[in-house]
Amino acid sequence: MDQNRREFFPYIDGLRAVSILAVVLFHLDSRLLPGGFVGVDVFFTVSGFVVASSLHNVRADSFRALAAFFYARRFRRIAPALLAMLAVTSLVAALFTPYAYLSSFTFNVGVAAFLGYSNIVLARGVDYFSPLGEFTPFTHTWSLAVEEQFYLVFPFIFFFLLKKRRMSASAVGVLALLCAASFAYGLLEHRLPIDLGFYSSLARFWEIGAGVLVYALMARTGLFETGGRGELAWATWT
Q1: N or C: which end of the chain has fewer CB within 10 A?
Q2: SS3 assignment, position 58
Q3: How far apart are CA 45 and CA 26, in angstroms?
Q4: DSSP letters spanning 9-71
């Protein structure tokens, strides 16, 4: 396994700042930025780009090696912070929040957050904008759960996207079709028996996938390697 990573993307920091500020303003007072929740969509797209670009110079001899490297790296990045957050939040909630106020729902969401499916529990138990959702200290973990569920398929996508060079062009096309299918599914999901709504990972696959597509197109055209003003302007506006 060989790796030579670029550690810093100025345009990514800018997009992250915009997306997070939009969500924070929306939560403070929706009148400040009525469409601020769109920052979540931007953040998912940024995540797709960052996760894909982090493997740009990784050289793996096989899919197994790539998957092992990817999951080990994701675990080291996510698990320590997640466990610390869950432990501290659980302790504070137990000490200062009346149990009757949250019932067992908080516990269920916390356990689900640890296992990577809190979005599903939240979707089935409460609406994101309901008072109970606001008082659940683990509600914000739904977005991490969506990303973790995407990680289940990402090594397959990336392996055929860039590791098998002769298939890379067709792999880009297949990923674009998957993103289009996810977008269409999001438009129809509310009519289906299983509707996760705001929390749906299938309906948000296209957002993370769009970030991966941007990276793939930059990598294929050489824009990712330049690191100059051309890359900065092109990637930021995209």
Answers
A1: N
A2: coil
A3: 19
A4: -HHHHHHHHHHHHHHHHHHH-TTT-TTTTHHHHHHHHHHHHHHHHTTTT-B-SSHHHHHHHHH
Rg (C-alpha) for the chain, rounded Å, is: 19
**Mean pLDDT in residue range 73-79:** 93
Please state the pTM of the whole predicted model: 0.83
Task: Retrieve residue 75's tokens.
Answer: 């675990």
Report the sign of the C-alpha dihedral through residues 178, 76, 37, 19, in that order: negative
> What amino acid occupies position 111?
V
Distance (Å, whole) CA 160 – CA 21? 35
**3-state SS track over 93-110:** HHHHCCHHHHCCHHHHHH
Q: What are the residues facing 59 on neighbouring strands?
A: 2
Q: How many residues does the chain have?
A: 238
What pLDDT digit, counting tens, does each position of 180-225 carry? 999 999 999 888 877 788 889 999 999 999 999 988 888 877 777 6
At 81-134, the pLDDT tens digits run 999 999 999 898 888 877 666 667 788 888 999 999 999 888 887 555 555 666
